[in-house]
Amino acid sequence: MSTESQIAVHWREEEYIQPPPGFIGQANAADPALLEQFREENFPDSYRAYADLLTWDTYWHTILDTSEPPFWKWFAGGRLNACYNCVDRHLAANRNKAAFLWVPEPETELTRTLTYQELYTQVNEVAALLRDLGLREGDRVTLHLPMVPELPVCMLACARLGVVHSQVFGGFSGTACGDRIADSGSRILITMDGYHRAGKLSDHKAKADEAVVTAAKLGQQVEKVLVWRRYPDRYLSAGDMVEGRDVFVDDLLPRHRGQRVDPVPMPAEAPLFLMYSSGTTGRPKGCQHSTGGYLAYVAGTSKYYQDIHPTDTYWCAADIGWITGHSYIVYGPLALGATSVLYEGVPTHPDAGRCWRIAERLGVNIFHTAPTTIRMLRKLGPDEPARYAYHFKHMTTVGEPIEPEVWRWYHDVVGKGEAVVVDTWWMTETGGFLGATLPALQPMKPGSCGPGVLGIYPVIYDEEGNVVERGSGRAGNVCIRNPWPGVLQTIWGQPDRFVQLYYGRYCRDAKSTDWHDWPFLCGDGAVQAADGYLRILGRIDDVINVAGHRLGTKELESAALTVPEVAEAAAVPVIDELRGRVVEMYVALNPGKEPSQEIEDKVTHAIDQQIGKIARPHAVWIVPDMPKTRSGKIMRRVIAAVSNFADVGDVTTLANPEIVEKIRRQVQSAK
Ligand code: 6R9
């Protein structure tokens, strides 16, 4: 087991909690026949129900093509356009309905409504602009945008043209953005001059300049930087526009006023977007998601698991820069023609009432957030929700395990006992939910996400590939036995790594075209109860989950190693009451270098620069040496145990066991 799952908090199985009767009556999934329809013997035909939520230009002929394992092709032969499905097809009946309600920061700014008609107009104009820049089907475009309506507008404009978008989380540094531009081979970057977060105006365009330099070093020329201008009257570094390269979108758009671009009917298996995620090695993985399978999967799971009806006001308080935002702010809700709330800022600024004020004002009735936010709001304003007159029917959590006592506050205080809570477990690679409860049909169990969702058949294997029986109480590696429409198609440009990472471990026969031989490795440790409910323990790879964000230990360590004094670095997870985990960096210095505050600061700065402030370590420890195996591998597990005041286990087989005690004295006395 990895350090993450080893230090996972363990709690006992909880009692079931039933949904409120008022919820059951109105639920999209209220008929148990749905569970029957998705029984394993009906797989893969059961997924026809999800495909039929979409409008196809050419209907597919083969539901699942397994001829080139594990590069599964869903809805083969079908053609569709994702933008058409999310925008155009809603115009006839719902032209004037809000597609997005945008709540900017500061709070004094008015909420902006973007109707389906307005969204249609804007998406077409931006698509016309991108087309005139020469972008065609299959080209990649990197977006580095904050939480503004321009972000989904750009995504949908790309989708309209069959262009693959790659949105890099706005909080990532210019360097991190540049790495992803180079990896995806984007020649166009779309960014914004600046944005507000927690009361501070950030000069975002400056990051684009760094990104272009980084990409060029890696061999990728960025030809155009398109800059959305939000603060035309303020001097940000957007003032330093590079002649011939940088253009303000608002200077170009007037040429495209009123233009329309036909949505390009794309093959179901054409890539829709890339979403970069952290993995075991330093190089980020561009998870490639398909057009037909992905869109069908997020539409289906949004309908049945988030219970989105056309009349709901739905708010997923994640950032579109992560997979949660792609699937459950943009594509899922829009495919269903819902109203989706976008908000800018953080939930705790200016105070712990921000979310509840937004919910009250906009009439939000479905709310989706992460345990780290719930923990923070519980600490800062435990009685705050009661002061606001909002009513949720449904609440979701995502991103990390939620402790039962935090779950209860969410259910009782935030949900006021009126809402169901759906704990959704999944990852960037899986496109949509893997484990969760169908809210009207399956009871909740705090701390467990639930069984596999419709059409997902999980299994837990031990290291040798034996099945760990349900109810045995033993943990193992959770896998999905079958393909599903939302699963990533490949890692962009690294097909071998894709096969090896997700299927290499438990594939029974590399020549087999029978999907039964290809279990998908999710990357988490888990325990499965007798009722099939999964309790997720954490990552089994070298990934640290900080406040729901995946940070690769290798990326953190590579950044620390750019500091000239640093010889070795280890990033370890440390349990944190609010954020679940935080990162502590351990570094050993080159011979002749003395520990100093300056070196610690340099390490922090290097991580800020190369990844972004979200990855900033909680502490930097300069230690005399790293505990190592005899073959020279740094034992992160041992360091993590020391940092967490946990049992380090047997260290006598290490090459340098005495260092463990030294580190313990240094670190534990300072904490
Ligand atoms: C969607 C998303 C994936 C990792 C995943 C797991 C953790 C996500 C969870 C959860 C327990 C949940 N995770 N949801 N753990 N309960 N409901 O978060 O994607 O950023 O790729 O992270 O997050 O460890 O492997 P991503």
TrEMBL record:
GO MF annotations for this entry? acetate-CoA ligase activity
InterPro entries associated with the record:
Ac_CoA_lig, ACAS_N, AMP-bd_C, AMP-bd_C_sf, AMP-binding_CS, AMP-dep_synth/lig_dom, ANL_N_sf
SUPFAM superfamilies in the cross-refs: Acetyl-CoA synthetase-like
Q: Which residues form the Acetyl-coenzyme A synthetase N-terminal domain?
A: 48-86
Show where the AMP-dependent synthetase/ligase domain sits: 89-484
Which PANTHER family does the annotation name?
Answer: ACETYL-COENZYME A SYNTHETASE, ACETYL-COENZYME A SYNTHETASE 1
Superkingdom of the source species: Bacteria
Give the family, as the similarity comment puts it: Belongs to the ATP-dependent AMP-binding enzyme family.
Query: Any idea of its EC number?
Result: 6.2.1.1
Protein's recorded name: Acetate--CoA ligase
Question: Which keywords does UniProt give here?
Answer: Acetylation, ATP-binding, Ligase, Nucleotide-binding
* Annotated ranges, domain AMP-binding enzyme C-terminal: 555-633
Pfam families annotated for this entry?
Answer: ACAS_N (PF16177), AMP-binding (PF00501), AMP-binding_C (PF13193)
The family database entries (PROSITE patterns) matched by this protein are listed as: AMP_BINDING
The gene is: acs
